[in-house]
Amino acid sequence: MATNKRFAVFDIDGTIFRSSLLIELTDAFIQEGIFQREARKFYEKEFNRWLDRKGSYEDYIGAVVRAFTANLKGVKYKDFLAVARKVVAFHKNRVYRYTRDLIKDLKKRNYYLLAISGSPKIILDEFCKELKFDKVYGRLHDIDLRGRFTGKIVLEDIINDKAKALRRAIETEKLSLKGSIGVGDTEADIPLLKTVENPICFNPNKKLLSYAKRAGWKVVAERKDVVYFVK
Question: Domains along the chain?
Answer without folding.
Answer: 7-230 (3.40.50.1000)
